[in-house]
Specification:
Layout lengths: L2 H11 L2 H12 L6 E3 L1 H11 L10 E5 L8 H12 L5 E5 L17 H5 L10 E4 L5 E4 L5 H4 L2 E2 L9 H14 L1 H4 L4 E2 L3
Parallel strand pairs: 2-3, 6-7
Antiparallel strand pairs: 1-2, 1-4, 4-5
Length: 188
């Protein structure tokens, strides 16, 4: 594990809300269940910017289970919402998400593979509690961009204008630089 990865893990461990969410996900007993994307990314940026930590985006729960139908996502969502209604839960079995933006995307092989296909590099991060209640990090592209406020599309979304358009639409909609002026957005 790199010191950068340990820095992200320390931020997660020091954030009570994220630890509560990780326990809730663990208690769902999902195959490869993890917290992913914005909850972690935004928390890291808030901490590094000296801002108060607040979960302002969806709480993305991802898992990878070929035996469960996609409709189970709604049941898991309902259970989490009933138990902790203050969060905007998003639950996705990543088995079914490979073709979300493009039909020719290869099938995902694991939750880590799916997280590695999120549109921009600093969003490609996840965490889960292992059987010893230790926080484990999923960071297929590392955490350097995340810690250095650099936002760029993963290579898959750099391949042509059609793919870059998805990245550009997300950047226009998210307006992250308003919240984090240090953030540098590039297309490569």
């Amino acid at each position: 594990m790199t010191t950068e990865e340990e820095q992200v893990l320390e931020i997660i461990r020091a954030t009570p809300e994220l630890m509560t969410i990780l326990r809730l996900i663990r208690d769902c007993h999902l195959k490869q269940g993890a917290l992913a994307a914005g909850s972690i990314r935004n928390t890291v940026w808030q901490v590094l910017s000296g801002q108060s930590v607040a979960l302002t985006s969806d709480v993305d729960v991802v898992y990878f289970d070929r035996e469960r139908p996609a409709s189970d996502d709604l049941e898991i969502y309902a259970a989490l919402t009933e138990r902790v209604p203050q969060y905007q839960w998003q639950v996705k079995n990543e088995v079914y998400m490979a073709h979300y933006n493009f039909a020719d995307t290869p099938e995902f092989t694991s939750v880590a593979d799916a997280i590695g296909h999120f549109v921009e590099v600093p969003t490609c991060v996840g965490a889960y509690l292992n059987e010893h209640d230790e926080v484990k990090l999923i960071a297929p592209h590392g955490v350097t961009d995340l810690l250095n406020f650099r936002c760029r599309p993963i290579s898959f979304y750099q391949q042509d204008e059609q793919h870059l358009a998805i990245f550009r639409q997300r950047m226009a909609a998210k307006q992250w630089q308003r919240r984090w002026p240090r953030l540098v957005i590039t297309e490569i």
